[in-house]
Design goal:
The chain has 746 residues and is mainly α. Helices cover 73% and strands 1% of the residues.
Length: 746
């Protein structure tokens, strides 16, 4: 625990002081991007080795299980070879003239069809197979499945984008990309040290099962079940949004239809075979997603530096990016763009000063423009566009105020050097040695970084769909080994994501910026059709040359567009999209299964061992899963927020709801049922309150002014308050109530 703390919070807190350059790397940046991850892997591996030796877990060899593992190895090797042959054939077909739309469609349908075949082959109604895959998944393959389950659309699609946009630590108002690398890998240390082995000892099916066994009574289980539904639903909406994003790009269909196409693959896998089908589907999906991530980043590294080992060599580009950043800040053309954004911000300030009058004036201006175009017999497409502009205007003062406030915020942000992006390797906004304002900004930036990292780590410990995966191994020793394998497979991507962000930023700043608008790559317009918020360009200063501040890239586009940015064949673009789809589908499988089990198994649980009742709960889980999938698809179709924001919020909810009562229940015998119930309600309630009260719509509706933030903590990190409240309330109430019974096998 001491090593974990030093490698995470210790390095981050003193990051501003660790600016020494070693072998070309700023020391703090290297630790946050790579060094700490390697330490986390070492901590988990050493702990598993010592703990397993201490417990003397060597068991007599089971010939049946040995033969089973040998068959799994052969099938996995055959699958990997077949997939590589499939890639090669598709690449040759593209070179022979196969159209891009067919390449994308083949990738989509071939991969989803294979996942569906695995789901159908693994179909089951047996209770232990449906809930925990029969508890016989080998540690390495369970680690691979955990990695696929874990590396959701947020990890695959958005994390590199967050690193591209926010660099090390962010701009103050937004957290930096490296917080996700540290938070999501450091959380696995806590899972290995504090939770996973203890839960596996109890031979349970779901996380709410633990609360029933440990604390007894009805309410701990019910609250845990509803909490699992809440945090998992928030998480799964982000995954299905990613499914729609990728599917629509691959096939050219509408975003909403893309959601339904991808959702079919999810349902076939998780509906028919439960955890057994989900496990083996996730193993196959991991191969797709890791190849899809490593191939383009390796190509970019080879193209720019002559070495495909991107994590080892991308540090050479950091000083080059720093030089490009200085050039862009001093560029007169960039300053013209910044001035125009500032002017637009001033216009929105005037509009917001008198919203009713400004809204009426703008509406009348557009009506006059339509009348003028009609009277002058302008082209019909121009008239239609003008009418569309009028129809999309805010309908009332509330909508106008909300839209213009958002536009003001965006223009103010882009009216900053580098369009509001921080220097890539600079730790935290502001300056601890500067003015009072700079010092305050530095403190707030570092505080938000630490708070979000804490929430991501604690949330990792509490995510039900992750913890359930460690129920599927043979024994406790295999569970510890499985966590080690999980972190190893995850680190393959997490070490490459910072490299990808740096290489793409160099490609954008060094090669794309400065091109004429009529010579821009086709992929920009193609992605803009999918969702204009993902990417947009606008000739702000009218010089017909793309400036850095005139390019808007969303976090969700950086990874998906990497092959096209690097000039790779379209087959690699299809592979990346298929990898992103695999990441989203694999996590959605686990989340939907968790929600279905919570609604059917945990809500209707009875302590008897009636086999008919158990089979009935399996069937109810399947139908609940179907219903929740449709609801999540509807929510994702509304495009509620970016993927990283949704996922980070679910981590805060999971950490506050589960972790205080769970860990105290494991390590503190005096934790009581009343304490657990009170702590879970207090933690979850405070987290939800803080998120809601800081939502712009809620504050506008209630007429609240100011930020409403405590200690300037961003709402996405609300779990930092919820976890603290949960621990405090659980301890206080437990001390005042009779002690709950401990589980027999704990």
């Amino acid at each position: 625990m001491f090593c974990w703390f030093l490698a995470s919070f210790g390095v981050v807190f003193f990051a501003h002081d660790l600016q020494q350059v070693v072998a070309g790397w700023p020391l703090a940046y290297w630790f946050a991007a790579q060094g700490s991850v390697l330490i986390f892997i070492l901590v988990v591996a050493v702990f598993a080795w010592f703990a397993n030796r201490q417990e003397h877990t060597d068991e007599a060899t089971d010939p049946a299980y040995t033969n089973y593992v040998r068959r799994v190895h052969k099938r996995f090797a055959l699958y990997v070879v077949t997939f590589l042959i499939f890639l090669g054939v598709l690449a040759l077909a593209e070179q022979s003239g196969l159209r891009k739309i067919w390449v994308g469609a083949i990738f989509l349908f071939a991969t989803v069809f294979f996942y569906a075949l695995v789901g159908i082959y693994s179909r089951t109604s047996k209770v232990s197979e449906y809930y925990v895959a029969g508890r016989r998944i080998p540690a390495m393959y369970n680690g691979m499945a955990v990695a696929a389950d874990w590396m959701s659309a947020a990890s695959f699609i958005s994390m590199a984008g967050g690193l591209y946009l926010q660099g090390f630590s962010g701009s103050g108002s937004k957290p930096g990309g490296l917080v996700y690398v540290l938070g999501w890998t450091g959380g696995f240390c806590l899972v290995a040290l504090l939770v996973a082995p203890h839960l596996r000892k109890m031979d349970l099916y779901t996380v709410p099962d633990y609360f029933q066994v440990r604390f007894g009574g009805h309410w701990p289980r019910v609250i845990a079940a509803w909490s699992a539904v809440l945090c998992s639903f928030t998480y799964v909406v982000a995954q299905i949004y990613g499914v729609g994003l990728i599917t629509s790009r691959l096939t050219g269909v509408q975003f909403e239809i893309g959601i339904l196409l991808g959702l079919g693959g999810v349902l076939v896998c998780s509906f028919l075979g439960g955890m057994r089908a989900v496990t083996w589907t996730q193993v196959t999906q991991y191969v797709v997603l890791i190849l899809a991530f490593l191939i383009p980043v390796s190509w970019l590294a080879y193209k720019q530096l002559g070495n495909p080992l991107a994590p080892a060599v991308y540090g050479q580009q950091l000083p080059k990016i720093a030089k490009l950043e200085r050039q862009l800040i001093e560029s007169p053309a960039e300053q013209e763009v910044i001035f125009e954004y500032a002017r637009r911000s001033a216009d929105y300030v005037l509009k917001l000063a008198d919203v009713p009058e400004a809204l009426e004036r703008e509406r009348q201006s557009r009506k006059n423009e339509i009348r003028r175009l009609t009277e002058t017999y302008a082209d019909e497409s121009v008239i239609v566009a003008a009418r569309r502009d009028l129809a999309t205007m805010p309908r009332d003062e509330v909508a106008a105020r909300e839209r213009w406030t958002q536009a003001l915020r965006e223009n103010l942000e882009r009216a900053q050097p580098l369009a509001g992006m921080p220097a890539h390797t600079h730790p935290f906004a502001g300056d601890p040695a500067g003015s009072d304002a700079d010092q305050q900004l530095f403190d707030v930036s570092r505080r938000n970084f630490l708070a979000l990292m804490f929430c991501l780590m604690i949330g990792t410990v509490g995510l039900p769909h992750l913890l359930t995966r460690f129920y599927t191994t043979r024994n406790v020793a295999e569970t510890r080994n499985s966590v080690t394998w999980s972190l190893f497979f995850i680190a393959l991507l997490y070490l490459a994501a910072p490299a990808l962000a740096v290489l793409v930023k160099y490609e954008i700043m060094g090669n794309l910026v400065g091109q004429r608008f009529d010579a821009l790559p086709v992929w920009i317009a193609q992605w803009a059709k999918v969702d204009p918020s993902l990417i947009s360009v606008s000739d702000i200063n009218g010089d017909h040359i793309l400036q850095f501040a005139e390019l808007t890239l969303g976090a969700d586009i950086v990874m998906l567009a990497t092959p096209e940015i690097g000039g790779l064949p379209y087959v690699v673009s299809g592979l990346v999209a298929a990898g992103g789809l695999a990441a989203a589908l694999s996590t959605a499988d686990g989340l939907l299964l968790t929600i279905g089990n919570a609604l059917a198994h945990d809500m209707s649980y009875k302590s008897d061992n009636n086999r008919i009742d158990a089979v009935r709960r399996v069937m109810l889980s399947k139908f609940a899963l179907l219903l929740v999938a449709l609801l999540a698809a509807y929510a994702a179709a509304q495009r509620p927020a970016d993927i990283l924001a949704l996922v980070a919020a679910s981590f805060s909810l999971a950490g506050a709801a589960f972790v205080p009562a769970m860990t105290l229940g494991i390590f503190w015998p005096k934790a009581t049922r009343q304490g657990a119930v009170s702590g879970m309600l207090a933690g979850l309630g405070l987290t939800l309150y803080y998120m809601a009260i800081n939502a712009p719509l809620v504050r506008a509706t209630l007429g609240l002014h100011g930020s409403g933030r405590w200690f300037d903590i961003d709402p996405v990190s609300a779990g930092v308050f919820g976890v603290g409240a949960g621990v405090l309330v659980t301890i206080l109430v437990s001390l005042l109530t009779p002690t709950s019974r401990m589980p027999a096998k704990a």
